[in-house]
Amino acid sequence: MKLRSNIKRLGSILPRFHINRIFGLFSHDVGIDLGTANTLVWVKGKGIVIREPSAIARHKKTKEILAIGSSAKRMIGRAPATIETIRPLRDGVIADFDATAAMLSHYIRRVHESGGVFPKVPRPRVVIGIPSGVTEVERRAVADAAVTSGAREAHLIEEPMAAAIGAGLPVEGPEGIFIVDIGGGTSEMAVISLGGTVVGRSIRIAGDEMDEAIASYVRLKYSLLLGEATAEEVKVTIGSVAQLKEEKFFVVRGRDLETGLPKSIKLTSAEIREALAPTIQEIIGNIVDTLEETPPELVADIMEKGIFLAGGGSLLPGIDEVIAEATKMPTYIAEDPLTCVVRGCGIVLSDMSLLDKIRISKGM
User: Fold this and answer.
1) Contact, 129 vs 342, CB < 8 A?
2) Residue 234 annotated as binding?
């Protein structure tokens, strides 16, 4: 604390860029994909060092943090009445400010515990990817949470732009690029040209809604109540959008709504396709609507280059084929789509001119 206060007092003597260089000696610049389902952290010079579920467990009365990340997610649906398990973000925005700040602070400390000259003085410069459709108040909440957690600067960029940069697409060129990022809480679609978003949409229909659709389908068809984690496991294991060459099966266990007793059933991938169909069609409908709003010159570029998919939702087998059929355009899945946003955040940390061009907010 004494060292930090001494450095702050230098602010009245030294220009700000000298202060930033001083803090830079003690901390690592950090890129964060603050997702509804998962939080990924990229550190300059090291790459992705943290990939954890966005979950936190704390004591209901004392608010003491008991677990963060994977260990907290394992508690969901299993914790006693004295412990609350929270997903701090819902639909891509902060639902619990204190929990989000605690989670960010925990990850920033973890990054700096692994090395550095003064690991106990983390004051990193942070770039965070957020949904494009959030309000100014929601943006401020994210920036404030980052600063509260120890960041000396918090820059916000839109997730579709970060995903496009992370996928290696030329966002600063005059050609149109169409990126679709299907995450846990939001699906983002944007047409990018000359370093900016020409047309974009952000809908709060994504992975979470797919999980809810599966749970609802099983409840209505089999009178079986599934937990949130089980529905997600079904989606990841046998979920698909187009017909598979070989159908898959998965045995789920839940509570029978008629008898109240445990019950097991075998689900097929065909049933999960049926459950997911309305959600997938809504996402595709918004992709088509975005194309309809795109200027003709950029549509011609997209027809030539195709549509690029990122985010966990793009891993559903067959989703690229269904989108290609609906839009009559080639559709490609980005390399390692789960990490596109955080890699994009990391890339702009090393390119301040690009960061100045694309950032939508800066918190101090």
Assistant:
1) yes
2) yes
